[in-house]
Amino acid sequence: MNATTRPLLQVQDLNTRFHTLDGVVNAVDGVDFEVYSGETLGLVGESGCGKSVTALSILQLLRCPPGEIQGKILFEGRNLLELDREGIRKIRGNDISMIFQEPMTSLNPVLRVGEQIAEAARLHKDMNRQESWHWAREMLRMVQIPGPGSRSRQYPHKFSGGMRQRAMIAMALSCNPRLILADEPTTALDVTIQAQIMNLMQRLKEEFKTAIVLITHDLGVIAEMASRVVVMYAGKVVEEAPVKALFKDPRHPYTQGLLGSIPVIGRKEQTGRRLQEITGIVPSPAQMPQGCRFHPRCTQVADRCRRQEPPMIRLARHRRVNCWLERE
Amino acid sequence: MTDSIDGPLRRKWAKLKRNKAALLGGILIIIYVTSALFAPVLFTGNPSAPDLMNSLESPSVDHPLGTDELGRSILGRIIYGSRISLLIAVGVVSVGMTIGIPLGLVSGYYRGKVDFIIQRATDTMLAFPGFLLALALVAVLGVGLKNTVISIGISMVPLYIRLVRGCVLSVREEVYVEAARAVGTRDVIILIRHILPNVMVPITVQTSLSMGTAILFAAGLGFLGIGIQPPTPEWGSMLGSARSYLFHAPHVATFPGIAIFLAVLSFNLLGDGLRDALDPRFKI
């Protein structure tokens, strides 16, 4: 990665708030990260830590309850948050597209699969119906769906989960976007299909030179796919590191906990340690703990953590930790 | 939309056919539609021409259902009346759908202020019983076929708005709608191509039920003398003018009454059958 290249996507101090009956909820609180052209950035965290909301904020797909987005989201230098409805619509699908978690429900049951891909292509490319259908079949072939000709004329209920996710990928790639936000793309799939989808995404990423923001809670997937990882907890970035460094030397107690909770066969014999868990649950966004948000669950908690929010400490380029421990 | 490969529609059709009541409703509707289409073939005379020599005759070979006070064949008038009634039914649901569906879609999809305004207007309209609303509209617009259709049609609008809005509220949260938004689909296209087809099932059911109601409302207006005007054969006005002879020629009122009853019943049976066959999740 060239140190002087401008990032493709720069998220700066992103705040996403929801106004709920329980008060204002900060689902995403001061998140910042960059994505460079052609790389895969992993966005990791537990359920409810704000990873999906971050992705939805980038494309401004949040709707109900009406979320309030603040900060800067620079895509190729342009602030997406300053665009009007039509402006952001032109970005969606064309420059940035999204793959969702639930392949079973993300295709419209009453439209033929080919039509849905063709429609996505027609939105941003100057194509007529016939050309777009031809393109849809090509895209289905690209995502390795056998018999794309007949498959494109079928309805989604004839597709298996893995095939639907392939079709979704085809739809997301149909306008050759620069960036794909993949929100847990394999979570709902069988493990064997997961691997296939991951390989497919990896291959297409190289072919299309697309950058991917891979949102997941599965560190195995991260190890396989990502080059850099941003770890989120309770709406904040707690650690960022290149993938190898993160697995070798996790700095934040939360990251350590996450890595410790991956089962390794034979670990107990080797190290005498059992599988670890992070005790407690993610705090409700409406009632964030004082000081460091992780302190009630942290194994290395100190007095200071309860009182004061830790600063973001930059250790190197693309290596930062949000923890008091780094101060010492 | 037909799927030639595995035909989910065919399965639904089979389910509908197994439903005896719905089948009966369907057959009755076919009979009504046939008599409306082939009225001149089925009844060769003029249903509106008086024949005072034969007034208030009982059913006979010449006049299978008897004659009315002006000697016109009741069978002929019922056959020709089915044209009017079906025309009104189709017209009414067209008016109801044309106004109600777009408003319901917009209301449910955008929520917020638009939704609030549309829903309060709907509340206001629903505060009146449907027939009363139609009656008031006729009073404003005047009598005649067109005004009858418009009046009853408008009284159906709030039902469509409510129904469509309710369905849109659930469909808009589907991931495929989100996915369509994520690739940059325009709102209009999302509404028409992604949401509307997914709310067609309850609309179809409602339409069948509404057609029955529309026939009943039109007959009611005709009975009161403010619907379709004589001498046009219309079931409601036939019933209205027959009520003076109820005691010495009861058949004059009975047969148009049966015609109305069976027509409304058939649409309701079909509507219920459609609801059960198309999707058990959509219970209205």
**Computed structural class of chain B:** mainly alpha
Give me the CATH superfamily of chain A: P-loop containing nucleotide triphosphate hydrolases
Tell me about the biggest sheet of chain B? none
The arrangement of helices and strands of chain B along the chain is HHHHHHHHHHHH
**So what's the oligomer here?**
heterodimer
Looking at the structure, what is the overall shape of chain A?
Answer: globular
- Could you give the count of β-strands of chain A? 12
Secondary structure: number of strands of chain B: 0
**Portion of residues within helices of chain A:** 25-40%
Short recap of the structure:
The complex is a heterodimer of chains A (328) and B (284). By secondary structure, chain A is α/β, with parallel strands linked by helices.
Polypeptide structure, described:
The complex is a heterodimer of chains A (328) and B (284). By secondary structure, chain A is α/β, with parallel strands linked by helices. Chain A has helices at 51-58, 85-91, 113-124, 129-142, 148-151, 161-173, 191-208, 219-225, 243-248, 253-260, 267-271, 303-307; strands spanning 9-20, 23-35, 40-44, 67-75, 78-79, 96-99, 179-183, 211-216, 228-233, 236-242, 312-316, 319-322. Chain A has 12 helices and 12 strands. Chain A has an 8-stranded mixed sheet with strand order 6-7-8-3-9-10-12-11, sandwiched between helices. Chain A has a 4-stranded antiparallel sheet with strand order 2-1-4-5. In chain A, α3 packs across α4, α3 (113-124) runs parallel beside α6 (161-173) and α4 packs across α6. The longest helix of chain A is centred in the middle third of the chain and has 18 residues, at 191-208. Chain B starts with 7 loop residues before the first helix and ends in a 6-residue tail after the last helix. With 284 residues, chain B is an all-alpha fold. Chain B is elongated and about 75 Å long.
